From TrEMBL:
It comes from Flavobacterium quisquiliarum. The gene is traK. InterPro entries: Conjug_transposon_TraK. This is Conjugative transposon protein TraK. The chain crosses the membrane at residues 12-31. The lineage of its organism: Bacteria, Pseudomonadati, Bacteroidota, Flavobacteriia, Flavobacteriales. Keywords: Membrane, Transmembrane, Transmembrane helix.
Length: 202
């Protein structure tokens, strides 16, 4: 009877050990599976020119400065790139105004009222912009920015180079096809826009 009782205790102890081991292994397997699934969900594969490129998802806070700078650059390129074509001007300005609030719209309305865009068309003038740098202060919200750029105003007989310094603030909005970065420029203002040089076209 003692042998049977000891054997039963041994079997019971061994069974409990096996069950405990199975539970630990199962929990570990579930944990690793969830970890792997979570890691795979943060990966995106992009097909470009027949090649699969791996991209990783990241939190917005990790890329605020990068996205904010690109948003400001994109706005300036659309707002200040002009050609002597009414459709091109309207297309670029429309794209730019999706990225900013009524402070940019007021500047556009003032320029339009002063026949600036009509002068661009009638004078066959093209205007391009080169962004030198964009500084973003992400320590306080809304994020303040300054954009340093140069403009080239190309006329039939001359090319005028001008400096451009603007400032404003960025607030978060929903992302959309028209505003992929999810920022909106507020209190947009031109601080400096003076002539640098002029050269005669040959």
């Amino acid at each position: 009877m003692k042998n049977i009782d000891n054997a039963f205790r041994y079997v019971r102890g061994f069974t409990m050990l096996v069950i405990s081991g199975c539970i630990i292994i199962s929990c570990y397997a579930v944990y690793k599976s969830l970890q792997t699934v979570n890691l795979m969900q943060n990966k995106v594969y992009i097909l470009a020119n027949g090649k699969a490129l791996e991209a990783y998802a990241s939190e917005r806070k990790d890329n605020i400065a990068v996205e904010a700078r690109d948003h400001v650059k994109t706005f300036h390129k659309f707002f200040f790139t002009l050609d002597p074509d009414d459709k091109v001007i309207k297309t670029n300005i429309t794209k730019a105004l999706y990225l900013a609030d009524d402070s940019a719209k007021r500047i556009y309305d003032d320029l339009k009222e002063n026949n600036f865009y009509s002068g661009i068309i009638s004078g066959n003038i093209s205007q391009t912009i080169q962004i030198d740098s964009v500084s973003i202060d992400i320590r306080e919200y809304p994020y303040r920015f300054r954009c340093y750029a140069r403009q080239s105003i190309i006329r039939t007989t001359s090319i005028l180079k001008r400096s451009l310094l603007t400032e404003g603030a960025l607030r978060n909005v929903s992302r959309s096809d028209n505003n992929p970065h999810g920022f909106l420029i507020e209190r947009f203002n031109t601080i400096d826009n003076r002539d640098l040089s002029a050269e005669t076209r040959k």
